[in-house]
Design goal:
heterodimer; A: 457 residues; mainly alpha; globular; B: 109 residues; Helix Hairpins; elongated
């Protein structure tokens, strides 16, 4: 509850800082505010307490994922310092909307009731529609916002229809009540409930950009401002998956046979479509968009093996994914600010001009591919091994083939960075962004070497 | 109030489900086949409102007030969504002089 108060007031005060013309203090204030938020979240570890008539669960799951989301948002704000350097227009609106969407994401992750779940999801999504279009004069940003809005609203309606049918079949909106009602049917499940679960799953698959509901993702991720893309591809994805996981654990967990095959199918299609579509891309943001579709597939494998998996494994996978993607996006922002484009050709020769940036970018790509001993490999290892325990060998085989295919496209920017010559003297960098980049890379390596840091929590 | 609820319960719940599903499907078809962004907004609104009707019907069926609360939340969300959507529409129109979805294809290239 304190988390919500801290984040909401941070967002509102951020807006007023702009009105009071304190632009210089904007970023330091937000960073301090997010640090306070983390400090408010952490005491709830091993100290569960539900608030608002059990509509919010403040437990270890909440601490794990909301801390991860707040920390990644913090990194995004540190990246904003370089991304919006020399920007004339006022930024407090964009910053406060980012904070509000983080608020919605955390609300969604901690929800124990369909009303709060839906409200959190919408607070998050509506903020994101605005953020995608925040580069008002750019045609690409307009198009991304428009597509994201229409597809997002469409998906929300499906999700809501599913919630309505669940309510109709069980008579309650609390996750735990729905779960016990589902268990009480003893396999004789009414079709209303089946349709409801299916529609909720489709809505969530839309939100996390899992195939075949991913068609908006490449355009939106490519057209949005790069900083916002980094935010969407990391924080929002984690929020979506944490909420999906919470939903399946608390709400649909009592009868997995109802949905497990559909989720396995969505996962397999995501892995295949995501990896093979990424092969033909020539723009780095589009490539990372398809790669995120493939990663949705990998995390959905974790949902399929919900009985053996622990939230810490998914948190570990998410942390590895977030660290590698944020590092990749820092490199993309640097390249884009220097050359004005984010095509693979723009990565040529970074290894000669900026060896540190090239090394960090290469490690991020290796981690996303899943090369040992980096964090991305260990994350995949844990997820796949729990799926094998559940007997989903075919799914794991598809995932491994997908990972092998992904080597081809993840290595294309790396090859360009190391094998070709640059068209410019040096990248536009700042000490801060290099510092974050190195920190994220060190984190990727350390998490890969000592996975127990998160797994054994 | 009780008379109203009794009256509403006279009609079987299946009729409500069928009616709301038809409205919802009309909305889905509208989103899929219409190319004017404003008409697509209206279709999404139709979908949301058909769901509201369905939730209200279930709320009476189960004698539970929480469904009605959800309806109010959905209305608020729909209003916020329209406000954001129209502002995106206006910005897009300023850049392209059109709200035809078929023209929004430049990112594909």
């Amino acid at each position: 509850m304190n988390t919500f108060i801290a984040l909401a007031s941070l967002g509102v005060i951020t807006m007023f800082l702009g009105v009071l013309n304190l632009k210089k203090w904007l970023l330091p204030f937000i960073v301090a505010g997010l640090a306070v938020t983390i400090a408010v979240i952490l005491p709830s570890w091993n100290n569960p307490g539900n608030t608002f008539l059990d509509m919010f669960y403040i437990d270890n799951f909440f601490v794990l994922f909301s801390a991860l989301m707040v920390v990644s948002t913090l990194v995004v704000f540190l990246m904003a310092a370089q991304y919006y350097k020399g920007e004339k227009r006022s930024l407090e609106g964009i910053y406060s909307i980012i904070i509000f969407s983080l608020f919605g994401g955390i609300m969604m992750v901690s929800a124990g009731n369909m009303i709060m779940f839906f409200t959190g999801l919408e607070i998050m999504s509506i903020s994101l529609y605005l953020l995608a279009g925040s580069h008002k004069t750019s045609y690409e940003s307009n198009e991304a916002a428009m597509k994201y809005f229409l597809m997002g609203a469409f998906a929300s309606a499906f999700l809501l229809f599913g919630i309505a049918l669940l309510y109709g079949a069980t008579g309650s909106l609390y996750f735990t009540d729905i779960s016990s009602k589902i268990a009480a049917f003893h396999g004789q499940v009414p079709s209303l409930l089946k349709a409801g679960i299916l529609l909720v799953a489709i809505g969530m698959a839309f939100k996390v950009a899992a195939a075949p509901f991913h068609f908006w993702a490449p355009d939106v991720y490519h057209g949005s401002p790069t900083l916002i893309t980094a935010y969407m591809i990391t924080v929002i994805k984690v929020a979506g998956f944490a909420a999906f996981l919470r939903l399946t654990m608390l709400c649909f967990g009592s009868d997995t046979s109802l949905w497990v095959n559909s989720v396995a199918a969505i996962s397999a299609i995501s892995i295949v479509l995501g990896n093979f579509s990424a092969l033909t891309q020539s723009k780095s943001k589009r490539m990372l968009a398809y790669s995120s579709v493939a990663h949705s597939g990998y995390i959905l494998i974790a949902l399929v093996s919900i009985q053996t998996i622990t939230p810490t494994i998914i948190a570990y996978y998410s942390a590895a994914y977030v660290a590698a993607n944020l590092a990749a996006f820092i490199v993309i922002i640097m390249v884009k600010q220097t050359t004005g484009s984010s095509d693979f050709e723009s990565f040529n020769g970074i290894a000669k001009t900026n060896p540190v940036v090239a090394a960090c970018g290469a490690i991020a790509m290796l981690s996303l591919t899943g090369i040992p001993p980096l964090a991305g490999f260990m994350g995949k290892y844990f997820v796949f091994s729990s799926a094998i325990q559940q007997g989903y060998l075919w799914l794991v085989l598809i995932a491994i083939v997908g990972s092998a295919v992904s080597i081809f496209y993840y290595f294309r920017p790396v090859i360009n960075m190391y094998m070709k010559d640059a068209a410019y003297e040096t990248l536009k960098t700042s000490k801060l962004s290099i510092g974050i980049l190195v920190m994220l890379t060190i984190l990727t390596v350390i998490l890969g070497l000592i996975p127990g840091l998160i797994i054994n929590l | 109030m009780n008379e109203v609820i009794q009256g509403l319960k006279l009609m079987p719940i299946d009729y409500y489900i069928a009616f709301c599903s038809i409205l919802f499907v009309i909305g889905v078809i509208g989103v899929l086949i219409k190319r004017n962004a404003l008409v697509i907004f209206m279709s999404v609104e139709l979908m949301l409102n058909s769901i509201n009707l369905l939730i209200a019907a279930f709320s009476v069926y189960w004698n539970s007030a929480s469904g009605q609360i959800l309806v109010i939340f959905v209305m608020v969300v729909a209003a916020a969504e329209v406000a954001v959507g129209l502002s995106i529409l206006v910005v897009t129109y300023q850049n392209t002089q059109s709200i035809d979805m078929n023209l929004l294809k430049r990112l594909k290239e």
